[in-house]
Amino acid sequence: MENTLLLVLISVCVLCSICSMIFVFFANRDIKNISKTLTYQYNLLVKIQTVLKNKFSVNETTDKAEIIYQDLLQNLIPVMAAIDIMPRQTSEHPLWRALGGIMDEYAKNPFVLEKLRRAIKLDSNVANNVGHYLNRANLFLQHMSATDTDGILSTTFTDGLLGQSLTFFAQAQALANTDK
How many whole angstroms separate alpha carbon 29 and alpha carbon 39? Predict the structure, then answer.
């Protein structure tokens, strides 16, 4: 009877050891899965934080853009009056309507460049406004390039009406300065 009891006790110990090893194996596997999941979640949170920082900086720039737009528009109004151009009749922001009107007129009639050159040469107020517009628009584009990490927004401004108008005004200013 003692042998049977001893055999049962050893069997129970072996069975408990096997169960413990199985438990440790599964617990180890679960801990590895949890570790992988936590690493993935941490990396995802870092990416989310980076995206939010970028969006915050772009949103901050967009909020300040209205002030910049109004400043640019204030410099365009006297120039448009001097070369007799009306803004587009659309529902866009007044700055884009003004720039669109100038660029549309230039596309229809290249003589607009000559009118602007003459206005810059003969009217110091127009020359000052064109100079201020060029400086402020360039600073705005440089700021956009610095804060827009993926470059989509800054490329949109550079390739759009703002970039086209910068080229147009810079060309007119250069022509006016070479005639002096």
Answer: 15
Find the mean pLDDT for residues 123-127. 90
Residues 6+ apart with CB under 8 A from 95: 69, 70, 72, 73, 76
Instruction: Please say if the pLDDT value at position 177 is more than 70.
Output: yes
Q: pLDDT of 8-17, one tens digit each? A: 888 889 999 9
* 63 touches 80 (CB < 8 A): no
Decide if pLDDT at 148 tops 80.
no
Both tokens assigned to 176: 């006016």
DSSP per residue over the chain, as a string? -HHHHHHHHHHHHHHHHHHHHHHHHHHHHHHHHHHHHHHHHHHHHHHHHHHHHHHHHHHHHHHHHHHHHHHHHHHHHHHHHHTT-PPPSSSS-HHHHHHHHHHHHHHH-THHHHHHHHHHHH-HHHHHHHHHHHHHHHHHHHHHHHH-SS-HHHHHHHHSHHHHHHHHHHHHHHHHHHT-
CB contact set of 180 (below 8 Å; sequence gap of 6+): 121
Contact assessment for residue 99 and residue 69, using Cβ atoms and an 8 Å cutoff: no
Find the radius of gyration of the CA atoms of the chain: 35
